[in-house]
Amino acid sequence: MPPAPRLGRRLGTLDATAIGLGSMLGAGVFAVFGPAAALAGPFMLLSLLLAGAVAYANAVASAALAAKYPSSGGTYVYGREQLGPWAGFLAGWGFVTGKSASCAAMALTFAHYVAPVHAVPVAVAAVVALTGVNLAGITRTALVTKVLLAVVLAVLAFVAVAGLALPAPGLPASAHDGAPPGPLGPVTAAGVLFFAFAGYARIATLGEEVKDPSRTIPRAILGALAGAFAIYAGLALLLSARLGPRLADAAAPIHDLVAGAGPAAGGIVQAGAAAACLGALLALIAGVGRTSLAMAREGDLPGPLARIAGSHSVPWAAELAVCAVVVLLVVGGSVLTVIGFSSFGVLVYYAVANASAFTLPRPERPWYSPRWLNAAGAVACLTLAFTLPLTSALVMAGVLAAGVAGRAAVLAARRRRAG
């Protein structure tokens, strides 16, 4: 039997870093600080440091594993190889289902920024258009991501300059003035902020398309994470200083920060938020498609999803399937009620990544990923997962259980046919 076709290695360090950073500077950078401040109160910076520490543990685990297993699929592959098929399936199924919902939510967020009256058709058009970019090849994905990232960075630079130069905006008093956070508030806020850093997984899921993966992937993952943390920390300091306790009530804190600069400033922030949504959505679709490809290769998803074709070596069947699922979620409109379970799924995904890295023998373990850090990362992921709202945890646990039951039924049917 001929070997399965492989994807082409076309991404350099700059391309991979841009995809990771573009994923982390999604719509969350324009909205996450308000909810985090409401939960953490004056301890938001502590929450950001905790989120960054958990993200770092996950990043180094992912980097170490991606260097050893430079193929599509990310933690799905690592879990299978290091812990067994069931652990890999749990990670892959959580990623594919949770991130498909995230894709739909990101598309709708973009549409609400640019055309709120026609949000659903605009969101569908965005999903279809970005799928077309991905079908044109991974180098096109990287190019468009870099263009969108440049727009986002330029807007954030404008926001930083305007925020420092303008007088503090005159906002109404906040109900959070002087109110202490709950006992788990800063930890829950860290869970909210953590997902702003989760984009480095996209670099790992594209591992089969990276040049010199043992060097490029660790550099890209750690470089993207460092850049994202610096930007989020700078914005957190600026917003906390300028908005104070009123940050906790802000639905669009970056817009509030530059409101004194006039209507044009609001338009600039809107354009930056739209570009951030598109950049994150583009990388999300690519990442879910590659993980679906890897699962199809192993029989954990339908085999036809493993098809690769075209001069650009793209997983066209998986990409089209992801597009169809996301469009259905957008049109159904129910995604906004279930998107919370994506957070739980991502933390389970990274818990598997840390556990997989923990099992690496010393000769295969890079210096930057010590075993104690892998163990701490796994515990931290599960801790954050179970501080999420109960409904979100229960919904995602049900989705994971349904996937496990489905896989068990398929394996039993295969054994009966073989016997």
From TrEMBL:
Superkingdom of source: Bacteria
Transmembrane segments: 12-37, 43-65, 86-111, 117-135, 147-166, 186-205, 217-239, 268-293, 394-413
Keywords from the UniProt entry: Membrane, Transmembrane, Transmembrane helix
Biological source species: Sinomonas flava
Subcellular location: Membrane
InterPro entries attached to this UniProt entry: AA-permease/SLC12A_dom, APC_superfamily
Signal peptide: none
Membrane topology of this protein: Multi-pass membrane protein
Name this protein carries in UniProt: APC family permease
Residues of the Amino acid permease/ SLC12A domain: 16-358
